[in-house]
Each structure stands twice: as C-alpha cells, then as structure tokens.
Amino acid sequence: MKFPTAFSLAQISELIKAEFVGDANFPVLGMNEIHVVEKGDIVFVDHPKYYDKALESAATIVLINKKVACPEGKALLISDDPFRDFNILSNYFRPFKSSDKSIAVSAKIGKNTIIQPNVFIGNNVVIGDDCVIHANVAIYDNCILGNGVTVHSGSVLGADAFYYKNRPEGFDKLLSGGRVVLEDRVDIGALCTIDKGVTGDTTIGAGTKLDNQVHVGHDTIIGKKCLIASQTGIAGCVIIEDEVTLWGQVGTNSGITIGKKAVVMGQTGVTKSVEGGKSYFGTPIEESREKLKQLAYVKKIPEIIKKLEDK
Fold first, then answer.
1. What is the 3-state secondary structure (H, E, C) of 203-245?
2. Could you give the C-alpha distances from 76 to 35, 63, 95, 171, 175, in angstroms and in order?
3. pLDDT for position 50
4. Which residue from 121, 240, 263, 280 has the least number of CB within 10 angstroms?
5. pLDDT tens, 223-247?
6. What is the model's pLDDT at position 305?
7. 20 and 118, same domain (yes or no)
8. CA nearest to 89, candidates 30, 47, 38
9. What is the pLDDT of residue 29?
10. Structural domain total, the chain
C-alpha cells in the first residue's frame, strides 16, 4: 500500500505514539508485508525469529518491538505492539468506508460491460470493457478488473485476509487494506472467494480460468493461462506461475511456489514448493508417476504377507 503523499518518520511516529530511530525527516512512502516490501515501505515484525529477515528486507522502515542496531540507510519505529500499530496505520490510510448504493459513485465501469441485478460494486472499483458480472456478485472496494472478465453468480472479490494474532483475550485480526486485481480475460466461476491482500494485491493473470467454488487467499499471485478446478483452496502468499493446472480439491500451504506448466492432480496437498513442467499427486505431494508406483506396491502387501505365511 502506497500512501497518497510521502510522510516523514516523525509524522508516522506521532500517529502510532512510537519512539523512532533515524532522521525525523526520513521519507516514508507506504507499508507492506515482508514478501512485497520496497524501498520507502514500513514492515512490521514482533517475533525474534523474524528480526533479521525484516531488518535485511527491502523495507527501509522497520516497526519492531525491541531496540536493535539500526541498519545503515534505514529507520526504526520502536513499539510495544507492532501488530496493533500496523493496524492503526492501515485504518488511518485505508479506512473502511460504508456504502449506501449498490454501485458506488466512485466506481468506473468500461464500455459494453454488463452488470446483472443485485451486484454490489464498492468504492473505487475499476471494471474494464466487455465484462459480464452476473447476479449477486460482490466486488469490494478498490478491486481492479481488466477487459473481457467474467464473474459468475455468488462470487466475492476482495474479502478480508484470514490473518489473526492469538492473544489471551481471543484472536486479533490484521486489517486488510490491499486489493484484488484480475487481468484481462479472466473467468471466475460461481461461488468463488478471492481475498484481497493485507497491504498489497491478490493478482490473477490474464487468461486464467477458475471453476466454481475456488478459494484464493490473500496476497497470492496466480500467473497467466492457468486452469483451476472446483473446490480448490489456495492459501495466502502463494505464487502460481504461468500455465499451471490445478485439478479438483487441491489444497496448498501458504508461501509456496508452483512452477510454470506444472499439473497438480485432484485431491493433492501441495505441502511444499514444486518445480514446473511436471505432474504431481498425493499428500505429501510427489511426482505423480512415483506416487502411483507407491500405491501399486501397497496393493501388493496382502499378497506378499500371504506368501510369507504359506512358507
């Protein structure tokens, strides 16, 4: 998420009432999660396990819960609760805005695009030319749809990320200020759910097709010309490269990469990153040829046991 204008380190410090380390005029341009940070961004970290990763990331402002040595060319914001303060900033720069209209006044809809009855289109949504949005679709604030996109009934674009911190009093939600971006000629089936990024974009590349009842988690990036079959669940922060096929009821772990032109057979659990250009099956995931061999061997076990007993 980029801020509308540059802020100073001192101004950000004042917003969250945190101590800062660095030049008071140090420029702050935005905020992001660690996997998408750029120069000028704030990243937060609240666990020693991830201190080095945050301090060595592309982010130049680190919101952290311990006084540490500040890396050269960077700045620190010292907070007793970085998770809370990241939420304060999200709410300040991209607050939730209610709508009293089915199609927000600020939404932009392209030429020859058809919007069926009972569709909700939120604030600052942009929909390109020649799209079809079927009945009872909800498109939350700030989503971007390219040209020739089809979204079938009951689908929801831009719901919040499933991201919580477990506190003694219950689960504390990390606020979502990101977007969903669908590139040209994307088809979304019925009853699909695509969560927006926490601060960045959940992106589906040009020409990709989703079947009915597919879930895409926050900040996931799906490449071009992918096919994703029904009841597939894709976790947050996944990278699916171009021309990947996921058959029905595939599930993935978060933070993994599926390589270009990989084929993942139905009911596979993608528990780790896999190379492109190969076919996979099973849980834990393996190349399909090897997994099918193993299943064939398992079927022979009763026969082997009987032979041993007959000796």
1. EECCCCEECCCCEECCCCEECCCCEECCCCEECCCCEECCCCE
2. 19, 6, 24, 27, 22
3. 94
4. 263
5. 999 999 999 999 999 999 999 999 9
6. 82
7. no
8. 30
9. 97
10. 2
Q: What pLDDT shows up at residue 298?
A: 86
Domain boundary among 34, 68, 93: 93
Residues of the chain with pLDDT under 70: none
What does the pLDDT read at residue 289?
Answer: 87
Six-digit token string for 50: 């991830």
Q: For the chain, what percent of residues have pLDDT higher than 70?
A: 100
Query: What's the CA gap between 295 and 43, in Å, rounded?
Result: 46
- CATH number of 77's domain: 3.40.1390.10
| pLDDT tens-digit map of 187-200 | 999 999 999 999 99
Instruction: Please check whether residue 59 is in contact with residue 37, taking contact to mean a CB–CB distance below 8 angstroms.
Output: yes
Find tokens 């937060």 and name the residue. Answer: 44
- pLDDT at position 169, please? 95
Closest CA to 259 of 232, 287, 218, 236: 287
77 and 211 housed in the same domain: no
Q: Which of 134, 152, 215, 218 is catalytic?
A: 218
The label of the residue with tokens 């000028």 reads 40
35 belongs to the catalytic site: no
State how far the Cα of 123 lies from the Cα of 94, in Å rounded to an integer: 12
Sheet holding 114-115, edge to edge: 114-115, 132-133, 150-151, 187-188, 209-210, 227-228, 245-246, 263-264, 279-281, 286-287
CB-CB contact of 138 with 157 (8 Å):
yes
> Is the domain of 32 the same as that of 163?
no
